[in-house]
Design brief:
α2 packs across α4. The chain is of the alpha/beta class. Helices cover about 50% and strands about 15% of the residues. The chain is built from nine helices and eight strands. β4 and β5 form a beta hairpin. The chain has a five-stranded parallel beta sheet, sandwiched between helices. It has a single domain, classed as Rossmann fold (3-Layer(aba) Sandwich), CATH 3.40.50.300. The structure holds 2'-deoxycytidine-5'-monophosphate. The site of 2'-deoxycytidine-5'-monophosphate has 14 residues, from α2, α4 and α8.
């Protein structure tokens, strides 16, 4: 099995680019952020205090998170309900960022992520895939772009979903999330020592996906 880890900050285009690359290579795309978003949603719905150990434990035990695939497209289910769309709001992004900083939550999701890579060729995106989840991944990519560029892309995505937001607000949110994700104690966002850094500030979607595919082909020897 071949595993490709793609890590990087919010809005670097990881999911769109990884999805496209996975489709072209016929790999399964695993969006690990969706798992944290789903637990963020579960926490918000239950109104549990996620910083209280026993309430958190109850929440984790009563929240069955599953990934389903049709082709290379991922759907995420919470206790059997497809929540793939509901978790995409910026509110759920913030809830995910908060819950993902708790070590017990990260441990809870670890085996599930590793199991996906045991039985499938995967492109897995997240923050700690190359450092913690799949330290032996065949290819590790750290995808980034300037905060301003990421804010513009995020703005477009949120507007397309009908969320009314302004550029400065999105930029501040991105800067805050970068800080939170890279300064937490457990599995902070940082490039693995053996990762390849790709900056997509000056690249469009196709160019970014092509670049990743050529890096994967070069490293694994697979023909494209
Ligand atoms: O990639 P995303 O925006 O869907 O991620 C939502 C949050 O989940 C993000 O703030 C950081 C967290 N996350 C994480 O801690 N580890 C991962 N592997 C993926 C996401």
């Amino acid at each position: 099995m071949i595993s490709v880890a793609i890590d990087g900050p919010a809005g670097a285009g990881k999911s769109t680019i990884a999805k496209l690359a996975a489709k072209k290579l016929n790999f399964i795309y695993v969006d690990t952020g969706a798992l944290y978003r789903t637990l963020g949603l579960a926490g918000a719905e239950s109104k549990a205090d996620i910083h209280d150990d026993s309430q958190l434990e109850r929440l984790l035990q009563s929240s069955r998170v599953e990934l389903k695939y049709s082709g290379s497209e991922q759907r995420v289910l919470l206790n059997g309900e497809d929540v793939s769309e509901r978790i995409r709001s910026s509110e759920m992004g913030a809830a995910a960022s908060e819950i993902s900083a708790i070590p017990r939550v990260r441990e809870h999701l670890l085996d599930m992520q590793r199991d996906m890579a045991k039985s499938n060729n995967v492109i897995m995106d997240g923050r700690d895939i190359g450092t913690v989840v799949l330290p032996n991944a065949d290819v590790k990519i750290f995808l980034t772009a300037s905060p301003e560029c990421r804010a513009k892309r995020r703005l477009r995505d949120l507007e397309a979903k009908g969320e009314a937001v302004d550029y400065d607000e999105v930029l501040q949110m991105i800067i805050k999330r970068d800080y939170q994700d890279s300064h937490r104690e457990t599995a902070p966002l940082k490039p693995a020592d053996d990762s390849i850094l790709i900056d997509t500030t000056e690249l469009n979607l196709e160019q970014s996906a092509d670049k990743i595919i050529s890096v994967i082909a070069e490293r694994t020897g697979i023909k494209i």
